[in-house]
Each structure stands twice: as structure tokens, then as C-alpha cells.
Amino acid sequence: MNLSLYWLSMIKHWLTSLFILALLSMMPLHSLAQIGGSYTYGFLSLTSSARSAALSGNLVAANGADLSLVRENPAYLVPEMGNQLSLSYVNYFSDINYGQAGYARSAGKLGTFSAQIFYINYGDFIEANEYGEITGSFQAAEYNLGISWGYQLDSTFSIGLSLKPIYSVFERYQSWGIAADAALLYRTSNKLFSAAIVARNLGTQISTYHNPTKEPIPFELLAGINYKIRHAPFNLSLSLLHLEKYNLDIIQPSDETDPATGEKLYKNNFEETALKALDHLGLGVEFVPGKAISFRFGYNFRRRSELKLGTRNSASGLSFGLGLRLKQFNLDYALANYHVAGVSHLLTLTTDLDDF
Q1: So where are the chain's domains?
Q2: Taking the model in full, what pTM does it have?
Q3: How far out from the chain centre does Cα 71 lie?
Q4: Which of 30, 61, 317, 328 shows the smallest number of beta carbons within 10 Å?
């Protein structure tokens, strides 16, 4: 064997082993982490890709070179994305909207790089004094600049890293932070199966809003698989969310009844285990009858369990989407159902600038 090829093979093996060891070692470090209102910069957990949102969100394993998914998994970055541009806009709830712009460039043997800007605008607020007298107005917004790198170790394994400076402002209160993502992606040579593991939002506040004590940021460990059924126009995806924490229930472990309704929470231990396990699960089905169009459906179990209304049926947890492959553009749309009070609309436009 050529000596240079031998050392290249050894370096790839070491990098893969290091990534697996680093990602797995993060689980016990964050096994006691809290979610849902006990951290700052919660906007980092939002999905900005319409394709991902339609397939239940957090699509960390997928087929194809889709730049809009790099924020979900930086290991998606491949040379085919070079000179691609992606724009996303989300009409969230009330006056809240957010979006993302991303651009990728191939650096040959050094890998593929991309830059993304992600923002969320919470709208205009009325400012008043302690007597209720209106004194003006103010805005609230948060920003995240991402620099991502993806590298193909061989024909099946890829790794990715993202560095994400954060700026948050609420009226006169400001905060700076820093976060990073690390990912490992496996794809079979026939492109029918892919699997990934992602450690997202490792970082800290650099400066706080007012309190001198720094708040945690929303770390999450995710995994996922995607399978393209051979000789059939279906892609099946499964996402495993918040693997760093088993119990995602907002109810305390000591509670035997729901504090809101007084109903018994679980009939038996098996039911309790099954429902808590399902809270980590997101499912998606993508139907691709041709090269020009695709239909997507998703179901997020945790969103359903937390936001459904017990008194009436609703579509909480369900998501739908459509993808159009035009001559020079890819256009994706998604509708995600959160609650009977409202839904979220997402739109993503991706293009290869070399086509112009």
C-alpha cells in the first residue's frame, strides 16, 4: 500500500473514532439537563428548513445535497453544494417571524464550508411606566451567525462542525453567546440509507442580560435514520430527539396525577415507559412521484403530547409539505401544526448559482 494512502486512511479512522467517542461522551455530561424554559437562546432549537419542518423537524439524516438542512446537521455539507444559496422564511405565531440565509463553497480537499445568518424577530412591543402610561415602543430580536464545515472521510462517512456566535436583544437588555455543533453522518454507497448523530448547541453565554449568573443554552443530542425504499418513490425518516435526557415530561416524577386535570397519569409502568420514549420520536414520510415534485408528511410525538387539547381533537404534532424542483430553483413549503390556536408556515428557496 502507498505510504501516503496508508496515513490518509489512518487519519480518517482516527477522526471517525474521535467523533463517535466525543458525541457519546456528551450524554452523561448532560443527562440531568432541563428543557423547556430553563435555558436562554431558545430560538436555537427552531427549525428553519421547510423540508425538515414538513418531516416533523430536526431532520438530521436525509438524502440529497440540500443546503437548507446544514443548520440541522453540518455533516450534510458536500462539494456538490458549492456555490449554492438557500433562503428561508417562517411565519411563526402572532407577530413573530424568523428566517435564514445560507451560502456554501467547496474548498476541494479541505472540505466544504458554508455561512448562515439566522434571525428571529419577536415584533413590536408597547413600552409603559409603572403607572401604565405609554412612553414609547421597543423591539426584541435574536441573531445567530453560523460558520459550518463538512468533510467526507470516505465514500460513506462524513463529519461536520459549526461555530455559532449569538446576539440577543430585548429592549435595552443585551446578551452575547457562543455555541457549536458536531456531527457524524453515514450514507451507504447506493444512497438508500443514511444515519447520523448530532451534538447541537454546545456553548455558553459570554455576557448576560442583567443577572451576573450565566444561564445554560439549549444543548441537545440527536440521532436519525433515513431509508429510501428500493424501486419505490418513498423516503422514510426517523428522528430521535433529546437523547441527553430520558424524561422530557414537564410533570415531576413524584406526581401521580395531572396537576391540571387531576386525572391519573399512567395506568402502569409499561404505559409510562412507552409514552416517555415516544416523546423522543419524530417520524416523516416523503413521497417523490417524479423529479419535479415531492409530498411530505410528519408527526412529532412530543409536540402532540404537550400541545394537544384533551377536550377536542386537533392536528397538533402533524406537519405537511410540498417540494417543487424547478429549472433553476428548489422551492419547499411546510405547514406545521402546533396547537388549535395556530399553525406555522415555512418557505425555503434553494438555488445553485452556477446554473445562471
Answers
A1: 3-243
A2: 0.82
A3: 7
A4: 328
